[in-house]
Amino acid sequence: MFRAVEHLRFVFVVHRVRSPNQNTQGTGDNMRALENGIRTILTATLLAGVGACNGDDQSSGTDTEGTTGTTGTTGSTTSPTTATDTSTSTSTSSSTSTSTSTSTSTSTGTDTGTDTGTGDTGTGDTGTAGTVGSSGPGTTTGGTTGTTTGGTTGTTTGTGSSTGGSTGGMPICGAAFFTDFTSCMDGFTAGKANSDPGVSNPTWACGDPTSGPVGAIGVWATNLDGSYAPDESAYLEAPPIDLSNCGGNSVFVEIVHWYDIENNFDGGNFQVSIDGGQTWDVVPALGHWYDTNDLGASFVPPAGQPGFTSGDMTWRTSIVDLGPYLGEADVRFRFVFGSDASVQYDGWYIDSYEVIVQ
Questions:
Q1: Which residues 6+ apart lie within 8 Å of 146 measured at CB?
Q2: Helix axes 2-18, 24-57, angle to 10 degrees
Q3: Domain spans of the chain, in order of start
Q4: For residues 92 and 44, what is the distance between their CA atoms, to the nearest angstrom?
Q5: Which CATH architecture has domain 177-357?
Q6: How far apart, in whole angstroms, are the C-alpha atoms of residue 281 and residue 232?
Q7: How many CA atoms lie within 13 A of 74 on its CB side?
Q8: What are the pLDDT digits (tens) for 8-62?
Q9: Fewer CB atoms inside 10 Å of the end CB: C or N, the chain?
Q10: What are the tens digits of pLDDT across the range 192-225?
């Protein structure tokens, strides 16, 4: 393109140089015609170049540069009188720019909803009542539980139950009891075990001893402040024990005691009555056993019976099994002590008494 422009400019200059002596008027007209033709060619050529440049700047387009305009023939000049300058210039510039841009955008949204349906309500069948349980030591429960689930979403549960039978169960044995005599509770009583006039008045008492196991707190003793009496036959009786509801249990009496007694003559033992105290039986002592089977006291009881004797002077634990008396409503328990006419010691001291139910 730039070569064509330079060529035209060269022709134009040569033409003007080669016609300096021609008529001024004619020459001027011819020159103007030639200049106009050259301008047309230059304009077309420049437009074609601009179109080409513009096509280069397009992105992703197709740029076709127009063909260079055809330079008209150089006008002939007739000298001297008339100079005719004919300049024909045709310039065709075609610039096609095609730009195709494709943009694809995909947007995906999520729509989450909650749809709650209402189910039909089912009807539960009522369970069949159980048969009446038989009475006995336990609790008899009869009846089944019917469950029916219906409905699409909803659930209905029908429950039927029936409890029959009497409540026998294990009867409660309320015989359990404990005391350590720190408060010298009521319910323990002392008296003569033999009504013979020669029997001394009993010296059983409750409190803190100043003889025997001095320092103990709360005891029942044949004498708190010295030796027991001669020719004694005395008892200390505990509150009655109800074993009527203890048929399925094991029941024991546990005694913690201390004694200092004339050996083989004086002594004491445990006795039980189930006839309101009319008659009494000597009961075995488990744990710490009796020391002799034949006490030499002046009066019965406990003369001729087994019992604790001698100067043991140690806290001992003895146990009496009340199994033979289970079911009895009035069981009496007592401590019996006896002596002869001579030689007395500190005696017998009971520190605690407990009825154990298992």
A1: 124, 125, 126, 127, 128, 158, 159, 160
A2: 170
A3: 2-54+65-92, 177-357
A4: 7
A5: Sandwich (2.60)
A6: 19
A7: 12
A8: 444 444 444 444 444 444 445 555 555 565 565 555 544 444 343 343 433 333 3
A9: C
A10: 999 999 999 999 999 999 999 999 999 999 999 9
